[in-house]
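Team,

Forwarding the record for the chain on the shared tracking sheet. I've put the sequence and predicted structure together so nobody has to dig through attachments.
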Amino acid sequence: MDNLPEEQKDYYKKIQDLLGHYKDGWEVFINAHKAKDFDYPLIRKPEFENDPYLPSTWIELVAVTQGIIAKDMLGLDFYPPQIEIIRADHMLDVYTTVGLPGGYKHWSFGKKRMIEEKKYDASKHLAYEIVINSEPCIAYCMDTNSPVMQMLVIAHACYGHNAVFKNNTLFKEFTNAEAILADVANLKNFVLQCEQKYGQEEVSDFLDFCHAMQFMDIPDTAGHRIRTKSELKARAEEKKRLDLDAGSRITFNGEAASKTRNDNQPTFPHRGVRNVLGYMADHDEYFPDWKRTIMKMRSELSQYFKPQMMTQKLNEGFATWTHTKIMNTMFKMGLMDWGMNQEFNNSNDGVLYQPSAIRLVKDEEGKIHEQFVGASLNPYAIGFAMYDDIERICDNPTEEDKLWFKHFAGNKDGVEMVKHAMETTSDETFIEQYLSPTVMRKFAFFEIEDVAKKNFFEVTSIHNAAGFRNIRQQLANDCRTFDIIPNIRVHDYQETDRCLILRHQMKDGAPLEPKSLQQILELMHSQRGYPVVVESVDETGNVRETFSSPEKYDYAKYKRTYRHLSP
């Protein structure tokens, strides 16, 4: 089928039939570009004037045309798209609500709105679009976009991101696209009811506490299908530490515990739970029902953001790969002229620009020389490069590719393999499984170690077989979002003084920021009415630091074995 002339392919015929209903026909997108108007008037041929199923706006016609290419040429599966054209002030509102419109009001959102507005006043720059993982998939597009830019962002958001939302395993496990906007509206309505019943100040103070629990309100139970060997090993070691710790608890009479586990002695059933807010909502009896309800709703809503954080490179890369395929196809079909194609390529080059880690600097004597300054990895650039390379490896592999990717080099359909990679990985496993030496050479990756005491950098991995593997693994490790976010879990509960004990698993010996943590503990303490403790433990399970509210709280003297074991 792929060997057929363009004019004989199904998607071409469908688009030809669609555009044949309009007087502009094949020139409809080019004419809008010339008029510099994405609100370009669509004039139907007389015999189709009353057809209710035809697109009635130019934007809608773009979406339908690109949808045909996305579905029939690329084989993408996606939610129905919904496009909203908004002004700058509306886009700032979307920034403020983190892309989830219709939420409850809170002073922190007003503060964020002011910050974003000041940034906009200084730069006059906003995102071209923001897309929401919902069904239908809503894309907010700026009203200042040119016709070509509207075409680009619709292809990027409505078909690229949309396909990731619907098909990636993390999004399928963590989020319910059909219900997300209804959940936001339900939380807003419930908060309003609580404000009317209990007072705006009390509800606002409680929401301060819920907001402070960010990243301690997300379940840690999904994503099992894409765990790596290193993650499984780390989990097994952590479970072993927890089991050992559970076997050395204080006995009922307060005497020293045995170093061996007593099977008749109960252990805390919720130990290791990462969703601290959800645990408190379900098991902390000191909260009234209305607060429990808000805590549960907030916790469920937070699940929406976990896959977003874990798939940034994967998601942006696939959306860029998709919009590039669609826009290039439209140009090849004659739906875009050379001027439109040049505008697209200029914009796309900016999206894919990767800043160099080496800069030219002038020293005190006025001489210019190179200096290593570092650079953040552009998620659009690395993601797109990897998808593009996967397709190349399938269609035209080198001998090196066949050694590195024996399972698909030269024997899989390139587009299908790209979709498979998008559907089954996170950023970490995407890089771990698909980053090739070709892409690493393209980005000039190498690994260095900062030898601080000796005041120099040591290159530890270069462009050879072992070096490529080390670089790939390190980049994959750097994408472990939940290693960057502090790993704080429920550890224990003391019935004697009702103290809730949390544990922070230190990463490479990094401590928590004391001031922020103390403020969070004080909010938790004020809402519970009873002490809260965080123990920071190292990789061997030894407690290195302890934080509490009240400060310097001596919780050890109240430690007894608890009796409640309800799940």
